[in-house]
């Protein structure tokens, strides 16, 4: 499986899913499975919105995932079989009465509401009022179509009661680069009208310098229409439509200009236009920067080093049955500048070429672009450059941090190899656990002209901007990495990775922590946990890492057993089984969640009439977590050890209902307790088959009400 040759910009799209929530997730094209993930609202305060605002925010650009990976936005279970784990972000309230846009370089928002019929009624007082109304309409429409702040959306409708289309184009990274070969946008709409729409027609005007290379999904799937018009037919009430459009940026596109794609989305019923949305995607064209160290001798990392073969990331994920991939590549401490020929010499490579893989990877996934810390990610992310024995010359259009992937699919031992990075690559601040001294680290951060910094440890790697790492250079870096190791070990333990059998060996792979743009929220997907600039204290400061629920939470996402017992509604719940495992390492620390107040909220839920208790729908994330923590307190950590071990050995369950049944039946069996009434009281509503399977186990019923067992230090 090859890492994608990925350079892209993603358009992030949200979807009004009702009940006051805005569902925005991100997705990759990699791997065999995907999961519809609800974005966490646990680590951060939601953005402040107007009463009727469709809030759209950036959740990041490409992830460069394995294989053929690009990170997209998804909002439908229909995509599950096509993609690998999505990024996880946040929920925001919405109302379709307004379009709210986020400016590209700050956090301000502008709103425009256009209801011509309403405005017509307001013009009845004479020509003055009529012309004022018309003028306001035209100004707002021009502002939308022309791309206020590089982002525009405008709506023509017959009035709120008749409007048909809701279109959420999302916030767009504002920079593209000449030669970029995978610029992606994902337009998405929803029929919000009272009736079926006969046709929803998309049309776009492409400027010189942008060419459509592929369309995925929708009526234009696997085609490149000219002119670029696509039409969805017979769109039912509440149905949605989407497509992923991939574009190529011309190599000779002039740096310094802006490039825009105006689009129009129109709905028709009975040949009559019922609503229309206009939007303009706009980017600045820039050249990838070049960095040169003035004092390269201040950087002690060797250009030649030995590498041992790591397990293939996908093979390891399948063994562990966990949600996302961990990094099967290793750090070098060097940076490749754009369009620079780099000589890489490899020796010692042997064995079956179908089993082993040796590659140079360029670019860190989800890493913030120092050219725009607010919104941009670096353009190259995990671009693969295959290596063979002897000298190899590699280059990259945009450049990036260099990694070596030497991996194997089998259990066979492979010899160590030697890789030498040529002098064309620039060293940058690189802290290697047990090797680099504090004095060396500070000196590198002081002298570096390359704006990145990286820690490489046995259990984790950390990549971010050198300026942020420098703020915490006086901290004990070995202590920091030791705390990361404790967190990983604690999450290994609750996952039943005790090493007693090969299937239960802790992974030799490691997760990455990556600094991501400030406009993004903390999130996790393949290979990495991505943390914005305002979370860096919890990344680099040992004392803060000890109570960083956000970091524990993002690491926990990697661990979830989504294939077996973490059904869809649990995506932001079971993740915190692993957060609590880390929390128990530091009982004296005050933390954000798992608090007595959250136990109080759980008790309020349990006090509702039984018919009103719906665990999946009206219990908060931490109310649901209280049930899992109750089970751990009642039956011990071993309950979760065995649950993980058993599910690791099972094939994937095909539906949420079967996952939910598996959980209730298996926990009853492992605890040797008939938990039917317990699950009913918690609002899990076991179906007839679940009740039957638990009854067939002939287990003893609890002598008392287990749901009153306090958790989170509550009473």
UniProtKB/TrEMBL annotation:
Keyword annotations of the record: Membrane, Transmembrane, Transmembrane helix
Ranges where the record places region Disordered: 103-124
PROSITE patterns xref list: PEPTIDASE_M60
Protein name (database record): Peptidase M60 domain-containing protein
Organism: Streptomyces albireticuli
SMART domains given in the database record: M60-like (SM01276)
Signal sequence bounds: none
Lineage, opening ranks: Bacteria, Bacillati, Actinomycetota, Actinomycetes, Kitasatosporales
InterPro entries noted in UniProt: M60-like_N, Pep_M60_3, Peptidase_M60_dom, TCAF
């Amino acid at each position: 499986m090859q890492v994608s040759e990925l350079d892209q910009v993603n358009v992030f799209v949200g979807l009004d899913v009702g009940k006051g929530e805005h569902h925005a997730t991100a997705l990759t094209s990699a791997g065999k499975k995907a999961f519809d993930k609800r974005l966490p609202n646990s680590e951060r305060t939601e953005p402040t919105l107007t009463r009727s605002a469709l809030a759209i925010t950036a959740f990041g650009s490409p992830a460069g995932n394995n294989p053929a990976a690009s990170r997209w936005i998804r909002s439908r279970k229909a995509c599950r079989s096509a993609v690998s784990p999505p990024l996880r972000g946040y929920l925001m309230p919405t109302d379709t009465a307004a379009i709210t846009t986020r400016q590209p370089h700050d956090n301000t928002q502008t709103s425009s509401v256009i209801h011509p019929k309403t405005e017509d009624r307001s013009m009845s007082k004479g020509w003055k009022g009529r012309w004022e109304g018309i003028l306001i309409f035209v100004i707002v429409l021009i502002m939308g179509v022309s791309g206020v702040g590089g982002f525009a959306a405008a709506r023509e409708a017959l009035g709120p009661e008749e409007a048909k289309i809701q279109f959420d184009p999302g916030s767009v990274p504002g920079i593209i680069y000449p030669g970029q070969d995978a610029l992606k946008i994902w337009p998405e709409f929803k029929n919000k009208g009272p009736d079926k729409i006969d046709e929803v027609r998309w049309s776009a005007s492409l400027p010189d310098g942008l060419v459509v290379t592929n369309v995925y999904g929708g009526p234009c799937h696997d085609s490149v229409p000219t002119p670029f018009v696509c039409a969805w037919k017979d769109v039912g009430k509440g149905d949605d439509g989407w497509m992923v459009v991939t574009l190529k940026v011309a190599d000779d596109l002039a740096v310094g200009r802006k490039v825009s794609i105006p689009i129009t989305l129109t709905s028709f019923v009975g040949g009559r236009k019922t609503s229309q949305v206009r939007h303009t995607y706009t980017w600045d064209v820039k050249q990838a920067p070049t960095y040169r160290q003035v004092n390269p001798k201040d950087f002690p990392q060797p250009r030649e080093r030995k590498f041992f073969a790591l397990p293939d990331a996908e093979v390891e994920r399948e063994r562990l049955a966990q949600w996302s991939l961990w990094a099967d590549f290793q750090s070098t401490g060097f940076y490749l500048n754009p369009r620079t020929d780099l000589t890489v010499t490899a020796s010692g490579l042997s064995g079956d070429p179908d089993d082993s893989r040796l590659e140079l990877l360029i670019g860190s996934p989800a890493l913030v672009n120092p050219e725009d810390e607010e919104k941009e990610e670096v353009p190259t992310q995990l671009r693969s450059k295959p290596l063979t024995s002897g000298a190899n010359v590699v280059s990259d259009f945009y450049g990036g941090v260099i990694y070596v992937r030497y991996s194997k699919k089998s259990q066979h031992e492979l010899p160590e190899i030697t890789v030498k990075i040529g002098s064309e690559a620039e060293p940058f601040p690189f802290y290697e656990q047990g090797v680099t001294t504090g004095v060396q680290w500070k000196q590198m951060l002081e002298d570096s002209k390359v704006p990145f910094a990286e820690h490489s440890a046995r259990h984790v790697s950390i990549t971010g901007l050198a300026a942020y790492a420098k703020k915490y250079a006086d901290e004990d870096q070995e202590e920091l990495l030791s705390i990361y190791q404790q967190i990983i070990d604690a999450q290994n333990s609750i996952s039943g990775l005790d090493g007693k059998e090969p299937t239960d060996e802790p992974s030799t792979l490691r997760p990455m922590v990556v600094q991501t743009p400030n406009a993004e929220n903390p999130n996790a997907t393949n290979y990495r946990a991505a943390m914005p600039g305002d979370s860096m204290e919890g990344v680099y400061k040992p004392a803060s890492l000890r109570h960083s629920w956000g970091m524990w939470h993002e690491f926990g996402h990697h661990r979830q057993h989504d294939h077996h017992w973490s059904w869809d509604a649990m995506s932001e719940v079971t993740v915190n089984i692993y957060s609590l495992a880390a929390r128990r390492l530091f009982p004296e620390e005050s933390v954000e969640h798992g608090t007595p107040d959250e136990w109080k909220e759980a008790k309020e839920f349990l006090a509702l009439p039984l018919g009103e208790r719906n665990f999946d729908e009206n219990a908060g994330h931490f109310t649901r977590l209280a049930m899992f923590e109750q089970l751990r307190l009642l039956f011990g950590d071993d309950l979760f050890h065995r649950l993980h071990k058993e599910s690791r050995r099972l094939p994937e369950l095909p539906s949420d209902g079967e996952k939910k049944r598996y959980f209730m039946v298996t926990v009853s069996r492992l605890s040797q307790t008939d938990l039917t009434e317990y699950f009913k009281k918690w609002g899990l509503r076991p179906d007839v088959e679940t009740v039957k399977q638990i009854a067939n186990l002939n287990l003893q019923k609890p002598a008392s009400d287990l749901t009153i067992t306090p958790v989170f230090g509550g009473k």
